[in-house]
């Protein structure tokens, strides 16, 4: 029988295995190491996980698909992109997770996202496994008909791997309501079925009310729950928000509604600072700019002249956005957007709470600085779980063929975010990690998946 020494070596073995088998996957390594750092006391207490070699099994995707996506631009030139779907873990339900279209997409990024999705989906308490997919296609600067042709070609391969009881994709960076529409249309045409195979659909064709709002609203509910532990609230706080897409927009809306003041936004070109606060009227301008006209955030300053624009930093350099004095921060753009230097600037600027709307937005060094300085840090797999949770509610509505009202969905979302918050806190405390939500999220997410895998036998 394995003893504690064996178990500890099982955890440290993981680093060697990763280096040996996947030397070119730094984002995947980062996501895995964050989780295994939380699991030592779990393996100490649960020898059944050690005996089942659960750590190695949970690190290996059940399936990783890669395929060719050929498409023609408006001039008739032929392009080829890579398509992927990583079906990571189906212990709790059908694979579930978004599709990302961005030039940086590769297997490492999608494996990190799919791996995190497994734990995030477990935390929602809903019956969904974890997956992620996408392409290195860049939708920026493409016409709507080019995007449609790309989506149709992508789905012409993907359709054979997915299904409402098998794998249910949704949106992520570069994939919003428009792309889900084109992908769904092609799936429906090829299979001659109208099912809940994708979430994030339009409310008139099987989508859920509140799905667009869910990730941003959920990240704000999570921040409010963390603050409420010490009797504090978001009201009156200045808040830094990065990104200007789906998650950033609805984070701003909920912050405004709760009496906080979002004062920054960004895109890959740069960031804006509006010291007067981004109001609902200004937010509506941003939504039109980004979702309809598909313009750049720099344009904000042409309309609202109290605001300033600064260019994006060089890759890996500090980002001035995080040095703006504020009390709350909602990173809502992309991975590793807050480095150690940014985190120090945030602490100096008075940040008290960080809720991760984006996936893995803080580097390990940034996390150590923030948590070390007593900042409340809501880790992505908990804080941004509202989006996938409402996706699971969309699946439930699709199965019932009955739509729910926005109020019903929002009531569920609030309750789910509060439950995730409470479960993270109690798991962190139970395993000796105090109030560290990062460890709590990893442990609570892991235990449900691992227990289901034990129940299913060696598959
Ligand atoms: P969108 O495509 O709607 O918006 C992404 C925003 O982030 C854009 O403003 C984009 O700028 C910016 N951005 C993307 N990549 C980079 C980069 N490499 N450097 C700087 N800025 C960048 O995506 P979402 O809002 O849906 O996603 C944002 C984050 O939230 C992602 O990390 C995603 O994984 C995560 N998330 C999303 C969920 C959802 O339901 N949509 C659920 C949970 C997490 P530009 O336009 O210039 O590219
Ligand atoms: O990262 C995420 O959780 C998402 N992009 C949403 C996934 C989903 O299936 O709704």
> What is the strand content?
5-15%
- The second-level CATH architecture of the domain at 212-378 is 3-Layer(aba) Sandwich
Kindly, what is the distance between the CA atoms of the first and last residues, rounded to a whole number of angstroms? Answer: 21 Å
> What portion of residues is helical?
40-55%
**CATH first level of the domain at 212-378:** Alpha Beta
Please count the helical segments: 17
Associated small molecules? NADPH dihydro-nicotinamide-adenine-dinucleotide phosphate, (2Z)-2-iminopentanedioic acid
Structural class: alpha/beta
- Which regions contain 5 or more consecutive residues with pLDDT less than 50? 1-7
Radius of gyration in whole Å, from Cα?
21 Å
Shape: globular
Short description, anyone?
The chain is α/β, with parallel strands linked by helices. It has helices at residues 4-21, 26-45, 47-51, 54-59, 107-123, 144-158, 177-191, 211-228, 246-257, 280-292, 300-303, 340-348, 364-372, 380-383, 385-400, 406-430, 437-456, and strands spanning 63-72, 78-89, 95-101, 130-135, 167-170, 238-241, 261-262, 264-267, 270-273, 308-311, 328-330, 353-355, 376-378.
Folded structure, characterized:
By secondary structure, this protein is α/β, with parallel strands linked by helices. Among the domains are: 63-196, Rossmann fold (3-Layer(aba) Sandwich), CATH 3.40.50; 212-378, NAD(P)-binding Rossmann-like Domain (Rossmann fold, 3-Layer(aba) Sandwich), CATH 3.40.50.720. The chain is built from 17 helices and 13 strands. It has a five-stranded mixed beta sheet with strand order 1-2-4-3-5. β6, α9 and β7 (261-262) form a beta-alpha-beta unit. The radius of gyration is 21 Å and the shape is globular. The two termini are 21 Å apart. Mean pLDDT is 96; it is low at 1-7. The protein binds NADPH dihydro-nicotinamide-adenine-dinucleotide phosphate and (2Z)-2-iminopentanedioic acid.
